[in-house]
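pls design
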Protein backbone atom coordinates (compact mmCIF):
# COMPACT_ATOMS: atom_id res chain seq x y z
CA UNK A 1 0.00 0.00 0.00
CA UNK A 2 2.83 2.32 0.88
CA UNK A 3 4.54 1.56 -2.44
CA UNK A 4 1.47 2.80 -4.34
CA UNK A 5 0.91 5.83 -2.13
CA UNK A 6 2.04 8.22 -4.84
CA UNK A 7 0.18 6.44 -7.70
CA UNK A 8 -3.03 8.09 -8.88
CA UNK A 9 -4.80 6.87 -12.05
CA UNK A 10 -1.71 4.96 -13.10
CA UNK A 11 0.58 7.96 -12.76
CA UNK A 12 3.38 8.26 -10.25
CA UNK A 13 3.14 11.45 -8.24
CA UNK A 14 5.14 12.53 -5.23
CA UNK A 15 3.40 12.06 -1.93
CA UNK A 16 2.00 15.22 -0.37
CA UNK A 17 4.03 16.75 2.39
CA UNK A 18 2.47 15.88 5.71
CA UNK A 19 4.65 18.45 7.48
CA UNK A 20 4.94 21.71 5.46
CA UNK A 21 7.96 23.86 6.17
CA UNK A 22 7.01 26.18 9.07
CA UNK A 23 9.43 28.77 7.79
CA UNK A 24 6.93 29.68 5.08
CA UNK A 25 4.36 30.69 7.71
CA UNK A 26 6.82 32.85 9.66
CA UNK A 27 8.09 34.42 6.46
CA UNK A 28 4.55 35.35 5.41
CA UNK A 29 3.82 36.84 8.83
CA UNK A 30 7.05 38.84 8.70
CA UNK A 31 6.20 40.21 5.24
CA UNK A 32 2.79 41.39 6.44
CA UNK A 33 4.45 43.03 9.46
CA UNK A 34 6.93 44.85 7.20
CA UNK A 35 4.12 46.07 4.94
CA UNK A 36 2.17 47.30 7.98
CA UNK A 37 5.21 49.11 9.39
CA UNK A 38 5.91 50.80 6.06
CA UNK A 39 2.28 51.89 5.75
CA UNK A 40 2.16 53.28 9.29
CA UNK A 41 5.47 55.11 8.82
CA UNK A 42 4.29 56.69 5.60
CA UNK A 43 0.93 57.77 7.06
CA UNK A 44 2.70 59.17 10.16
CA UNK A 45 5.09 61.15 7.95
CA UNK A 46 2.16 62.68 6.07
CA UNK A 47 0.26 63.56 9.26
CA UNK A 48 3.14 65.00 11.29
CA UNK A 49 5.41 66.43 8.57
CA UNK A 50 2.92 67.60 5.96
CA UNK A 51 0.98 70.62 7.15
CA UNK A 52 -1.67 70.50 4.42
CA UNK A 53 -2.29 69.13 0.95
CA UNK A 54 -1.38 72.54 -0.48
CA UNK A 55 2.20 72.00 0.76
CA UNK A 56 2.64 69.39 -1.99
CA UNK A 57 2.66 72.26 -4.48
CA UNK A 58 6.06 73.24 -3.09
CA UNK A 59 8.83 71.47 -4.95
CA UNK A 60 10.94 70.87 -1.83
CA UNK A 61 8.07 69.22 0.07
CA UNK A 62 6.92 67.03 -2.83
CA UNK A 63 10.47 65.94 -3.68
CA UNK A 64 11.22 65.00 -0.08
CA UNK A 65 7.95 63.09 0.34
CA UNK A 66 8.42 61.08 -2.86
CA UNK A 67 12.03 60.30 -1.95
CA UNK A 68 10.96 59.10 1.49
CA UNK A 69 8.18 56.90 0.09
CA UNK A 70 10.29 55.23 -2.62
CA UNK A 71 13.25 54.75 -0.28
CA UNK A 72 11.10 53.16 2.41
CA UNK A 73 9.33 50.89 -0.09
CA UNK A 74 12.59 49.80 -1.72
CA UNK A 75 14.21 48.98 1.60
CA UNK A 76 11.14 47.02 2.74
CA UNK A 77 11.07 44.91 -0.43
CA UNK A 78 14.82 44.33 -0.23
CA UNK A 79 14.43 43.04 3.36
CA UNK A 80 11.59 40.68 2.41
CA UNK A 81 13.43 39.29 -0.61
CA UNK A 82 16.65 38.81 1.33
CA UNK A 83 14.82 36.95 4.09
CA UNK A 84 13.04 34.78 1.51
CA UNK A 85 16.35 33.81 -0.07
CA UNK A 86 17.87 32.98 3.30
CA UNK A 87 15.02 30.93 4.77
CA UNK A 88 13.94 28.88 1.81
CA UNK A 89 15.00 27.78 -1.66
CA UNK A 90 11.54 26.74 -2.84
CA UNK A 91 10.22 30.10 -3.96
CA UNK A 92 12.09 30.59 -7.21
CA UNK A 93 9.16 32.23 -8.94
CA UNK A 94 8.59 34.65 -6.07
CA UNK A 95 12.25 35.61 -6.04
CA UNK A 96 12.29 36.22 -9.80
CA UNK A 97 9.19 38.42 -9.65
CA UNK A 98 10.52 40.19 -6.57
CA UNK A 99 13.83 40.90 -8.27
CA UNK A 100 12.01 42.44 -11.21
CA UNK A 101 10.02 44.71 -8.90
CA UNK A 102 13.14 45.60 -6.95
CA UNK A 103 15.01 46.45 -10.14
CA UNK A 104 12.27 48.86 -11.19
CA UNK A 105 12.14 50.52 -7.77
CA UNK A 106 15.92 50.86 -7.54
CA UNK A 107 15.97 52.57 -10.94
CA UNK A 108 13.23 55.00 -9.86
CA UNK A 109 14.92 55.56 -6.50
CA UNK A 110 18.25 56.29 -8.17
CA UNK A 111 16.64 58.84 -10.47
CA UNK A 112 14.79 60.64 -7.66
CA UNK A 113 17.68 60.67 -5.21
CA UNK A 114 20.07 61.80 -7.93
CA UNK A 115 17.78 64.66 -8.88
CA UNK A 116 17.23 65.56 -5.22
CA UNK A 117 20.91 65.81 -4.30
CA UNK A 118 21.81 67.31 -7.67
CA UNK A 119 19.34 70.14 -7.13
CA UNK A 120 20.57 70.63 -3.55
CA UNK A 121 24.19 70.80 -4.65
CA UNK A 122 23.33 73.30 -7.38
CA UNK A 123 21.97 75.88 -4.94
CA UNK A 124 25.36 77.12 -3.63
CA UNK A 125 26.55 77.60 -7.21
CA UNK A 126 23.47 79.63 -8.06
CA UNK A 127 23.97 81.78 -4.99
CA UNK A 128 27.05 83.38 -6.50
CA UNK A 129 25.52 84.06 -9.92
CA UNK A 130 24.74 87.46 -11.37
CA UNK A 131 21.02 86.71 -11.49
CA UNK A 132 20.79 85.52 -7.91
CA UNK A 133 17.13 85.41 -6.87
CA UNK A 134 18.03 84.49 -3.28
CA UNK A 135 19.78 87.83 -2.66
CA UNK A 136 17.33 89.94 -0.66
CA UNK A 137 17.68 93.69 -0.31
CA UNK A 138 15.69 96.14 1.78
CA UNK A 139 15.25 99.69 0.54
CA UNK A 140 16.05 102.41 3.04
CA UNK A 141 12.80 103.23 4.84
CA UNK A 142 11.17 106.63 4.62
CA UNK A 143 8.86 108.55 6.92
CA UNK A 144 6.01 110.61 5.49
CA UNK A 145 3.12 112.53 6.98
CA UNK A 146 -0.44 112.35 5.81
CA UNK A 147 -2.89 115.22 5.52
CA UNK A 148 -4.13 114.45 9.02
CA UNK A 149 -0.61 114.63 10.46
CA UNK A 150 -0.22 110.85 10.91
CA UNK A 151 3.24 109.39 10.32
CA UNK A 152 3.78 106.38 8.03
CA UNK A 153 6.90 104.29 7.48
CA UNK A 154 7.36 102.87 3.96
CA UNK A 155 10.02 100.56 2.49
CA UNK A 156 10.42 97.91 -0.20
CA UNK A 157 11.83 94.36 -0.06
CA UNK A 158 13.14 92.80 -3.27
CA UNK A 159 14.70 89.44 -4.20
CA UNK A 160 14.20 86.06 -2.59
CA UNK A 161 10.82 84.36 -2.60
CA UNK A 162 7.58 86.00 -1.53
CA UNK A 163 5.80 86.31 0.80
CA UNK A 164 8.16 87.87 3.34
CA UNK A 165 7.71 87.87 7.10
CA UNK A 166 9.29 90.86 8.81
CA UNK A 167 9.55 92.81 12.04
CA UNK A 168 10.40 96.49 12.56
CA UNK A 169 12.15 97.92 15.62
CA UNK A 170 12.73 101.56 16.44
CA UNK A 171 15.11 103.63 18.50
CA UNK A 172 14.13 105.18 20.81
CA UNK A 173 12.37 102.08 22.06
CA UNK A 174 9.42 104.12 23.27
CA UNK A 175 8.18 103.77 19.69
CA UNK A 176 6.27 100.50 19.61
CA UNK A 177 7.86 97.68 17.61
CA UNK A 178 6.02 95.89 14.81
CA UNK A 179 6.27 92.10 14.93
CA UNK A 180 5.56 89.21 12.56
CA UNK A 181 4.00 90.99 9.60
CA UNK A 182 3.62 89.51 6.11
CA UNK A 183 4.08 91.29 2.81
CA UNK A 184 4.75 90.68 -0.88
CA UNK A 185 7.41 93.38 -0.83
CA UNK A 186 5.78 96.66 0.16
CA UNK A 187 6.09 97.79 3.79
CA UNK A 188 3.70 100.49 4.97
CA UNK A 189 3.09 100.80 8.72
CA UNK A 190 1.91 103.62 10.98
CA UNK A 191 4.36 105.10 13.46
CA UNK A 192 3.44 106.83 16.71
CA UNK A 193 6.19 109.11 18.03
CA UNK A 194 6.75 109.86 21.69
CA UNK A 195 6.39 113.36 23.06
CA UNK A 196 8.44 115.41 22.54
CA UNK A 197 8.96 114.04 19.02
CA UNK A 198 12.59 113.37 18.05
CA UNK A 199 14.04 114.89 14.87
CA UNK A 200 15.34 111.52 13.69
CA UNK A 201 14.89 107.89 14.62
CA UNK A 202 16.62 104.60 13.92
CA UNK A 203 14.63 101.97 12.00
CA UNK A 204 15.73 98.32 11.92
CA UNK A 205 13.99 95.78 9.66
CA UNK A 206 14.61 92.06 9.81
CA UNK A 207 12.81 88.92 8.65
CA UNK A 208 12.78 85.89 6.34
CA UNK A 209 11.44 85.07 2.91
CA UNK A 210 9.31 82.02 2.05
CA UNK A 211 12.41 79.79 1.83
CA UNK A 212 13.70 80.88 5.24
CA UNK A 213 16.47 83.14 3.90
CA UNK A 214 17.08 85.94 6.41
CA UNK A 215 17.42 89.62 5.63
CA UNK A 216 18.31 92.63 7.77
CA UNK A 217 18.43 96.38 7.40
CA UNK A 218 20.24 98.63 9.86
CA UNK A 219 20.68 95.84 12.39
CA UNK A 220 23.16 97.84 14.46
CA UNK A 221 20.94 100.96 14.41
CA UNK A 222 23.58 103.33 13.07
CA UNK A 223 21.49 104.62 10.15
CA UNK A 224 19.15 107.44 11.16
CA UNK A 225 15.92 108.33 9.40
CA UNK A 226 14.81 112.00 9.56
CA UNK A 227 11.33 112.74 10.91
CA UNK A 228 9.37 115.15 8.70
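designed seq:
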Amino acid sequence: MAANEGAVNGENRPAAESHPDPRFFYLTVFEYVVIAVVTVAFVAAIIYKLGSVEDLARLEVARGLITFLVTLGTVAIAIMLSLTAILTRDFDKRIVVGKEILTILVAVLGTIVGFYYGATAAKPAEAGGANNRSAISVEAPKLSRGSDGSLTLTANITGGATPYHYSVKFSPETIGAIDNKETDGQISVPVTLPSPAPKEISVSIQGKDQNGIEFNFNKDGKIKTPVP
